[in-house]
């Protein structure tokens, strides 16, 4: 009886963790817009402003695209009322 109860508890825990993990998973999005301020901000075509978060190599490359239209793919997170965009890939449009 104790073993069955322990197994049932373990199964409930596993199912709960699976659902919790999917709730925290972020979806990738692709945005188009104009890079501003040396590649640290994106003025999106959707009218929103995004703070760009990227690895050093990508940040340096994006910084060279300031003032140009770009398409970036990544994950958006809202923190303290700001849209933080973590870049996974990008390309210049002009």
Could you walk me through the main structural features you see in this protein, from its secondary elements to its overall organization?
With 94 residues, the chain is of the alpha+beta class. The protein has a domain at 28-92: Beta Barrel (OB fold (Dihydrolipoamide Acetyltransferase, E2P)). Helix content is 33%, strand content 43%. It has helices at residues 2-24, 56-63, and strands at 28-36, 41-44, 49-53, 69-79, 82-92. It has a five-stranded mixed barrel. Strand 4 and strand 5 form a beta hairpin. It is elongated and about 70 Å long. The mean pLDDT is 83.
Task: Tell me the layout of helices and strands.
Layout lengths: L1 H23 L3 E9 L4 E4 L4 E5 L2 H8 L5 E11 L2 E11 L2
Parallel strand pairs: 3-5
Antiparallel strand pairs: 1-2, 1-4, 2-3, 4-5
Mean pLDDT: 83
Major beta sheet, specifics? 5 strands, mixed, barrel
Architecture of the domain at 28-92 in CATH?
A: Beta Barrel
Instruction: Catalogue the unreliable spans.
Output: none
| Strand arrangement, major sheet | 1-2-3-5-4
List the helices and strands in order: HEEEHEE
CATH class of the domain at 28-92: Mainly Beta
Structural class by secondary-structure content: alpha+beta
Overall geometry comes to elongated
């Amino acid at each position: 009886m104790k073993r069955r109860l322990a197994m049932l508890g373990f199964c409930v825990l596993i199912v709960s963790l699976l659902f919790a993990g999917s709730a925290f998973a972020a979806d990738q999005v692709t945005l188009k817009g104009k890079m501003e301020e040396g590649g640290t901000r994106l003025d999106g075509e959707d009218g929103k402003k995004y703070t760009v978060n990227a690895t050093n190599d990508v940040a340096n490359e994006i910084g060279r695209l300031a003032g140009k239209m770009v398409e970036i793919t990544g994950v958006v997170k809202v923190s303290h009322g700001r849209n933080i965009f973590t870049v996974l890939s990008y390309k210049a449009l002009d």
